[in-house]
Amino acid sequence: MTDGDAIASLHVRDLAYRYPDGNQALFGVNLRVERGERVALLGPNGAGKTTLVMHLNGILRAGHGSVEITGMAVADDNLMEIRRRVGIVFQDPDDQLFMPTVRQDVAFGPANLGLRGAVLDARVDEALDLVGMREYAERPPHHLSFGQRRRVAVATVLAMRPDILVLDEPSSNLDPAGRRELAEIVRSLEVTILMVTHDLPYALELCPRATVLSGGVIVADAPTRELLADTELLAAHRLELPFGFDPSRL
Ligand SMILES: Nc1ncnc2c1ncn2[C@@H]1O[C@H](COP(=O)(O)OP(=O)(O)OP(=O)(O)O)[C@@H](O)[C@H]1O
User: Fold this and answer.
1) What global pTM score does this model have?
2) For the domain 10-93+162-237, what is the CATH code?
3) Spatial contact of 168 and 53, defined as CB atoms under 8 Å apart
């Protein structure tokens, strides 16, 4: 097999989508992400980022075009496997944590896949180790800090051993230490990552490649450093580096 034939983690082709109320959110999105890549998905409010993400695990179904996850097209008869392959960490960890203990929350997905006993325990420990939360396994999630809950939410998804991890605004509401800790975790993971964010420095820090979705189409796809140095592009799509950000860091 040559490189060109390698199976992409994510392959979106010509994806268009119109909400039932007639509002068209995506107008032919093309995006290919290779295994192990970390890609930032940037774009202004209302650009279609959430709509695109909701197609990756079949919450929304392509009006036109297709989505493939490691070679498998998202379709009605494989949604369980697609949802194992695509782990989405939503912005609010409380959307994902609902069991009495951290361990039970992280075990929930793999138990649904049929894992039991020592195999399940090992899977949970592995996921908690990846996010540095093993010592909190028996604690109720609602007793943890926001940053710790976000790490547990990441663990619930990693416990499924996904092919692609989608992080929706991972740095939101984190203090500087929490931000740095999560960045270290993300960098240590070997999984393919698609990171939806308005936090351009965080994208720069974690994702070598960035794409800009605007008005329902991908308008840029380049090394993050180059993309963020394009002031015209940023201005045209309402993307702003923080005040005082030192451009020589680009
Ligand atoms: N359920 C819905 N019904 C109709 N239109 C919707 C619905 N959800 C989103 N939209 C519209 O689709 C477009 C894309 O929205 P989407 O939420 O995907 O953008 P986004 O890039 O995630 O924005 P943000 O950065 O604000 O989260 C917007 O015009 C939005 O108003």
Assistant:
1) 0.95
2) 3.40.50.300
3) yes
